[in-house]
Amino acid sequence: MSAARQGFDSFEKNNRKQLPFYIGLLAFGILGPLLFPNYTLQIAILWIMVLFAQTWDTLGGQMGYNSLGNIFFFGAGMYISAIVQVGTVYDVGLYTSASGAGKASFTPDQYYTGISLGILAAGVGSALLAPILGFIMFGLRAAYFAIGTLGVALAAGEIIGAWQWVGGGSGIAMPVYPGSADGRSEFFYWISFAAAVATFLVLRWLYTTRFGLAINAIRDDEDKAEATGIPTLRHKIVAWSVAAFFLGISGAIFGNMTGFIEPLEVAFPTVTFGIFMVAMPLLGGKGTLWGPVLGAIVFHVVKEVTWTYLLGWQWVALGLIIIITVVFFQQGIMGWMKEKWPEKFGVVIDPVTAAESREEATR
Amino acid sequence: MNNAMGGAIIEVSNVTKTYGGVVANKEISLTVPEGTITGLIGPNGSGKTTLFNSIVGYHPIDAGSIKLRGREISKLRVQQIARLGLIRTFQQTRIFSKMNCVDNMLISIPHRRASWKDMFSYYSSDITEKAEALLEFVGLYRKRYLTAGDLSFGQQRLLEFAMALMNEPDVLLLDEPTAGINPTLINGLIDRLKRANTDFGITLFVIEHNMRVIMNLADNIYCLAHGELLAHGVPEQIQKDQRVIDAYLGAH
Amino acid sequence: MFGNIQLLIAAPALNVQLLLDGILIGAIFALAAYGLALVWGVMNVKNLAQGDYVILGGYIAWWGQKTFGIHPIVMLPIACVLLFIMGWLLYLLIIRWVINRDMFTSLLATFGIAFMLAQLLNVAFGPEIQTAQSGMTTRTLFATVSVAEIKVVSFVLCCVLAALIVAFMKKSRMGQAIRATAQDARAARIMGIDTERVYAFTYALNAAICAAAGVLISMIWVIQPFYGITHAIRSFVIVTAAGLGNLPGVIVAAFGLGVAEQYGGFVLGAELQQVSVVGLLLIVLIWRQIKLARLRQVVQ
After folding, report:
1. Which chains are within 8 Å of A by 3+ CB pairs?
2. Residues C88-115: what's their mean pLDDT?
3. How far off is chain A from B119, nearest CA to CA, in Å?
4. B232 vs B40: CA distance, rounded Å
């Protein structure tokens, strides 16, 4: 472990200080469905949101590449999983063209095998799509990268919608869970929770390695990073692949959880989920480990609680929140806390140097 | 000034570069002997930084050749050239502003082999020790945990220099290293530059405006004016060269 | 799809039709793209809300017709004025704070505006596709090519509006102030130009231009609350291909885009419309990237 990154007592780097949060989240994660059984699926979606926020932040907050189209991997994973799940038992083309004419059945064995393979394939498949997209997109800087990725996500929905083999605009009916409704909720809850936790653990490890420092360098000054000899393209593609892997898995889970997938509303909801992915880490504090998690929780809870009261206006309120966060609160919750209590986060402020810098700036 | 003149580590032959309609470099030829300190001077706008940018691969050249230890590098990209051991510092100091100084140093280790295995490993303690030693060398040890963006301009310059040393370059291109540094600290910097050359064996190629500094520092000096090579020689020769004096006086 | 390509080869008149339609609608795209380039050049704000301003303009015209029976073309100046005011307000409330911030902030802020507008329109008018009635007919030329009168009228209006805008930018004091600010904001301030007013005016003017484009779109084509982002991408494609400050380039690129989309829509089918636009976006971006890579200029 790099000594410098452990050299001082800080919140982000010191696991002991974070322990109450780990325990708190773990407790919530485990007890949640027990205490609020009617909201099990809602909390499952919360964990999906946490995963969304974390994976966006890897590229956006840690590496400085703000993607507006990460939802692409979500949808890709969803469809890859569906194809694998259906394809292991039936002919995909026939299955999708018969949709609505009667649900085909899957035995429990087939279901569990299918969904396991499906989720795995979704992760791996998305991770393999990332380099392809990356080669095209990573030459673009800042604004063009954002718009380009947005476009790709929008177009993907249409392309899948026109592809009859996967059901086109009519979508695919996912295999039905072989069990009770409660059992189903619990099942999806636990795999969502597991996915979010796995994402967190992997990313947390990743950020402590040389890779983590390298992507921060790319964010701070990409030209300087190149001038130092860092193979930047390689790092960018790996970062996106890691994010894509988990996004693909989340898509597979969500698709099965919803029971019916369809390109524009479910798989590639670019303007809803796709934008949540950006808003949540911003709200919580981008570029930090806990920021995205925090942002996702606050965002999702506030959204769910206020949704019903706002009737048709919830989306408008959402847009307002995005604008206010982006414009006035861009450092997010973690950023704001870091500014108020820098020492607690390992940011060392030396009053003499700070005074010198201030004096220089006014000269 | 007592360094043995080795073979040329950088060979620039007839390099021409046009930039936005202006011929910034016109058929420039020079060599940087290995193990020495070579200076590059000239009035503002004479094309010094453009030449540097050409050498490090920031932009392609229109004509000519640039060789590093006999190997043609004019078609290579910045990262590749950096991995071959040619490092530069920037005129407007560039460091990674959101990290602390130690992290800035860690990220600057040489990426010679750029291996996949190393990508996910940690930084060993001897790397950290080296980073801290180099920070001590430039006098930033006590400030090593400060965020680099919070340092004063002069301190950021020193950090950039330390980062360049961390990169274990064979040859280091420095773009106006003393610009903006408090005059009382310049002697210390000259001393460190010399030590980088003698103790670490790094060849230096330095753009400088401060005549006192460059005459003190360099083993030999090239002077550019209006994009062309004007004069070349040891400091004593350059100081007396009428063409150089005219170029500078004429530029005012 | 291949059947469609064969049709193109077999019937030259079809090509003329697509070309004509492409150019006629391309003129409207040019208008919106010019507005985007204006805001981009003056304030360095990449306005992702562009397309939603267009759609909003379209809805104003449609609503005016539906509620009061006013012809959309009469609604055009009204829509322009309304959106001008709205643009000024949005500048004061939001855009003003993101001007000197990083790229991402201004992009997301304008995206937030786009999102909000789209949702507001959805709440107000519902998600159905609408068209405004122009009351004009379609004529047939040479018995093979059909030309909708409204498309020609729209083209003429675009030319008139473009001429007005160009004249305004050249002759009026505000126009000159805008151009000065675009070149060097600090110098403009030193010269006594109130750059804050210039920025507000520019953003408002852009909104008004979008309104005009939207009114025309509502008659020639369709409007729907969520079609905005596609129009924004169109404007981006055009501006990226043409480069800032290159008005003739914008016009040519816009015509090119219009025609390319017509062909794309014909060959690939209407459901893949966004794919055509995004495909063009990617082509333009990658082509630009290759061009820059070959030059490898230092971008400081």
Report:
1. B, C
2. 90
3. 5
4. 9
From first CA to last CA, the distance across chain B in angstroms is 31
Q: Which residue has the tokens 């005011």?
A: C85
Q: What are phi and psi of C129, to 5 degrees?
A: -75, 140
Q: Amino acid identity, residue A255?
A: G
* Cross-chain residue pair A319–C116, CB shorter than 8 Å: yes
Integer-rounded Cα radius of gyration of chain A: 22
Confidence of residue B83 (pLDDT cuts 50, 70, 90): very high
| pTM for the structure as a whole | 0.89
Average pLDDT over residues A264-289: 89
Nearest CA-CA partner of A253 in A116, A353, A108, A98: A116
The phi, psi pair for B10, rounded to 5°, reads -120, 130
Summarize pLDDT for B188-219 with one digit per residue, the tens.
889 999 999 999 899 999 999 888 899 989 99
pLDDT bracket for residue C298 (50, 70, 90): very low
Q: Which residues of chain A make contact with B122, given a CB cutoff of 8 A?
A: 1-2, 208-210
C143 touches B at CB < 8 Å: no
pLDDT at B153 over 80: yes
Which residue in C165, C169, C198 sits closest to C42, CA to CA? C198
Confidence band of A3 (pLDDT split at 50, 70, 90): very low
* Neighbouring C-beta atoms of residue A90, cutoff 10 Å: 16
Written in H, E and C, the secondary structure of B131-157 is HHHHHHHHCCHHHCCEEHHHCCHHHHH
Inter-chain CB proximity A271 and C97 less than 8 Å: no
CA distance A302 to C286: 40
Amino acid code (one letter) for B231: A
Q: DSSP characters for A253-297? A: HHHHHHSEE-IIIII--TTTHHHHHHHHHHHH-TTSSSHHHHHHH
Beta bridge partners of B205: B38, B173
Is C179 strand, coil or helix?
Answer: helix
Between A34 and C47, the more confident residue is C47
Q: What is the DSSP letter of C58?
A: H
- Calculate mean pLDDT across residues B23-39: 92
Q: Which residues of A touch B90 (CB under 8 A)?
A: 224, 227
Tokens, residue B95: 């460091």
Cβ within 8 Å of residue B181, ≥6 positions away: B154, B157, B189
The amino acid sitting at A2 is S
Is the model's pLDDT at A122 over the cut of 80?
yes
| Side chain identity at residue B161, one-letter code | F
Q: State the nearest Cα–Cα gap between A99 and chain C, in angstroms.
A: 20
Mean pLDDT, residues A343-351:
69
Average pLDDT over residues C256-276: 85
For residue A101, give the DSSP letter.
S
Provide mean pLDDT across the span C28-35: 95
Q: What is the pLDDT of residue B250?
A: 66
* DSSP per-residue string spanning C74-105: HHHHHHHHHHHHHHHHHIIIIIHHHTTS-HHH
A226-253 confidence digits (pLDDT tens): 999 999 999 999 999 999 999 999 999 9
Contact partners for chain B, using 3 or more CB pairs closer than 8 A, are A, C
Contact indicator for C264, C276 with CB cutoff of 8 Å: yes
Cβ distance of C298 and B59 shorter than 8 Å = yes
CA-to-CA distance for A106 and A115, rounded, in angstroms? Answer: 11
- Tokens 């419309």 — which residue? C273
> Across residues C190-209, what is the average pLDDT?
94
Distance between B238 CA and the closest CA of chain A, angstroms:
32
* Crossing angle for the helix pair A181-208 and A15-35, to the nearest 10 degrees: 170
ipTM above threshold 0.95: no
Interface check for C298 against chain B (CB to CB < 8 A): the answer is: yes
Nearest CA-CA distance, residue B72 and chain A, Å: 18
Q: Which two tokens stand for residue B52?
A: 């540097």
